[in-house]
Amino acid sequence: MAMKLVYFDLRGKAEVLRLMLHVAGQEFDDCPGGVNKADWDSQLLFGQLPLLIDGDRKIVQSGAIARYLASKLNLCGSTEDDKLLCDQLYEGAEDVFQALWPACTKYRGGSPEALEKVLAEGGNVHKYLTRFNAILEGKKFFLGETFSYADLALYNVLTLSSAIDVNNYIAPNFPNIKKHFDAVEAHPKIDAYNKSGKRRPPFEPFTF
């Protein structure tokens, strides 16, 4: 039986999970647009999507789902140290998202000025990306030549919204991240997903 991923018809908290499933070649039912959360409430531990259904397992919380898939799909390296590093990098990418999201959503008080502030040197997004750039020095992927869900986590954050311009912001300021971004995007399964027409569009800043 194929896995089922339940989420709204946007990238949001489910996109990194979709990326993982596509990279692994895992068959799954990507619930189409029009998902009514109320239809799933009885299966949601905290009343929130995404929800992954894998056989009898019903898993919520995007981080828990990501770690479950990483282990099941062999996307977290081969050693305990690899897994620990991937977990830390995944959470670091989530910190980038948490710093970026309020600055580019109107309902969270976002504005062009707020976005400019977090992206500028000394801003929270800039601080995290500086660390990621240093970690990637001399590496193709975070685990060297081994592709992992940590790579997808950072790639996902950089593609969730058009707020971050990879060519005009990332490339000149964080060259190691740009090389990493290009390597992830060149992965045959990612390339196929991006060209398939199945991937939802990125979020446009200040639209809600």
TrEMBL record:
InterPro entries per UniProt: Glutathione-S-Trfase_C-like, Glutathione-S-Trfase_C_sf, Glutathione_S-Trfase, Glutathione_S-Trfase_N, GST_C, GST_superfamily, Thioredoxin-like_sf
Coiled-coil features, chain-numbered ranges: none
Annotated GST N-terminal domain residues: 1-77
Domain GST C-terminal residue range list: 79-203
Biological-process GO terms, alphabetical: glutathione metabolic process
Taxonomy, superkingdom: Eukaryota
GO MF annotation terms: glutathione transferase activity
Matches recorded under Pfam families: GST_C_3, GST_N
PANTHER family named in the record: GLUTATHIONE S-TRANSFERASE
Protein name in the entry: Glutathione S-transferase
